Amino acid sequence: MTTLLIAEHDNTLIKDATNKTLTAAAALGADVHVLVAGENAKGAADAAAKLAGVKKVLLADNAAYAHDLAEPLAALIVSLAPNYDAFVAPATSRFKNVMPRVAALLDVMQVSEIIKVVSPDTFERPIYAGNAIQTVKSKDAKKVITVRTSTFAAAGEGGSAPVEDAAAAADPGLSSFLGEEVAKSDRPELTSAKIIVSGGRAMQSRENFAKYIEPLADKLGAGVGASRAAVDAGYAPNDWQVGQTGKVVAPELYVAIGISGAIQHLAGMKDSKVIVAINKDEDAPIFQVADYGLVADLYQAVPELTDALGKLGK
Amino acid sequence: MKVLVPVKRVVDFNVKVRVKSDGTGVELANVKMSMNPFDEIAVEEALRLKEAGKATEVVVVSIGPAQASETIRTGLAMGADRGILVKAEGNVEPLAVAKILKAVADAEKPGLIILGKQAIDDDSNQTGQMLAALLGWSQATFASKLEVEGADFKVTREVDGGLQTLKLKGPAIVTTDLRLNEPRYASLPNIMKAKKKPIDDKSAADYGVDLTPHLEVLKTSEPPGRKGGVKVKDVAELVSKLKTEAGVL
């Protein structure tokens, strides 16, 4: 019994999502090997070798794996399949893309976005955007699993596993990389941010997002989110949307400003550890999930909060 | 080029689902059902390709109970040309759906299949990728822009932290993200017209696909409850609580 964890990395370093997925992978009870697929990814492989509990690192260093193309990466994982009983990867956009392709090629049903390992074949996963939790038992001999990383603690360092080269699999050559546009923000990505400040329809304009929400977010080193109402009204770009049809987040601290708390928004943020709501309507549903609610006019309270944090040395 | 668009009948996104007290699932009786929102975006994109002269026919297919024909009618009312209903009762897993869709694609020979990136009921986010694997086709998930280049495609995808643009060899699979388009509402005349459009009646058995689930659902439960906390009187109290009580600053 051996588990293969497919690492999220930037070729130089391992991303935090990998450390968290390792905790889930280790809970399956078998030895864990880590696959680092990329181009010039020796740095990431060496970093993976230091993770506590990892028995072996496989490095597939090839131009075919430079841009996360699903077809060659799936072919690589399937080529390694005879040696493994479980394939575990974080539910990042890279692996949401590739793992179902792997599962279908192996004729198994993937278990998506697990939040708990109950036993080596039984898992908990959210459905209906987290409004219900399903416990499922996989009857497949080989398991393909993606992990919702926000619910697992990050594994630390302390290992010294050997790094071996893995042969590249034949590239089906079905797609090619044309370019990318990485968001030029210094702010953390919403799905991995420890703190998120979100604005709702009450922000009234894009300018107000820039004037009130963004300075508070920057003071906290936070990611910026928005409700669907704010996005639909054009106050915030689509990729800021938190909710059932946007991004599902679970930061340490979520600050909801001028957000009423529609079901579809709550579905995307209610697993946050601490929720703060600022809204002038004291009956807003957001207060039913907020740990700390402040009934106030956001145009006064938010600058005040930003200032107060400044005085704390934030 | 023919475009195939699979659509799923799901609980309407505005409905707050309730877990059954016996833990056997969520309450579906007397609940409003609609087309999965990401699938509406898929239908819209296919219609725009047809209106731009890039596609010749848009076929919507749904796998599910007899009522899934309503979901197909929604697609037809938006402007799709015809429908295929593959009747299947109970929980049909993404892998089985992908196998049925492969058989449909083998018969229909579309140049492009557009699917929603995930269904908002089981949130699996698998069917498109699985279908691409079974057909041996190229795939671009989470698309925010789609261009036809002859028999090939140029697709911009939403990935963590930005956008990625790929060239896909056709035939191809594309799954939709929210930014791809804003779906139209069906007009009353088009809703009337849709009633006359053909829907093929099929069953999973017609395609020889085994629907036995690979995953056994042991139980469905409420998520851990979240209680409302306290109201603070001002910003100073908020900051003090966050610092000392919550420890998040």
Automatic annotation (TrEMBL), chain A:
UniProt keyword list: Electron transport, FAD, Flavoprotein, Transport
Organism of origin: Bradyrhizobium retamae
Binding positions (FAD): 201, 227-228, 241-245, 258-265, 279
Co-factor: note: Binds 1 FAD per dimer.
Role played: The electron transfer flavoprotein serves as a specific electron acceptor for other dehydrogenases. It transfers the electrons to the main respiratory chain via ETF-ubiquinone oxidoreductase (ETF dehydrogenase).
Keyword Electron transport: yes
GO annotation, biological process: fatty acid beta-oxidation using acyl-CoA dehydrogenase
GO molecular function terms noted in the UniProt entry: electron transfer activity; flavin adenine dinucleotide binding
Identification of the protein by name: Electron transfer flavoprotein subunit alpha
Keyword Flavoprotein in annotation: yes
Assembly, per entry: Heterodimer of an alpha and a beta subunit.
Top-level taxon in the UniProt lineage: Bacteria
Domain (Electron transfer flavoprotein alpha/beta-subunit N-terminal) ranges: 3-181
SUPFAM superfamilies attached to this UniProt entry: Adenine nucleotide alpha hydrolases-like, DHS-like NAD/FAD-binding domain
Cofactor dependency: FAD
Pfam families documented for this protein: ETF, ETF_alpha
Annotated family: Belongs to the ETF alpha-subunit/FixB family.
From TrEMBL, chain B:
Residues of the Electron transfer flavoprotein alpha/beta-subunit N-terminal domain: 23-211
Job description of the protein: The electron transfer flavoprotein serves as a specific electron acceptor for other dehydrogenases. It transfers the electrons to the main respiratory chain via ETF-ubiquinone oxidoreductase (ETF dehydrogenase).
Family note: Belongs to the ETF beta-subunit/FixA family.
Alphabetized UniProt keyword annotations: Electron transport, Transport
Protein name, as recorded: Electron transfer flavoprotein subunit beta
Subunit structure: Heterodimer of an alpha and a beta subunit.
Listed Pfam families: ETF (PF01012)
Stored PROSITE patterns: ETF_BETA
Cofactor entry: AMP
UniProt GO BP: carboxylic acid catabolic process
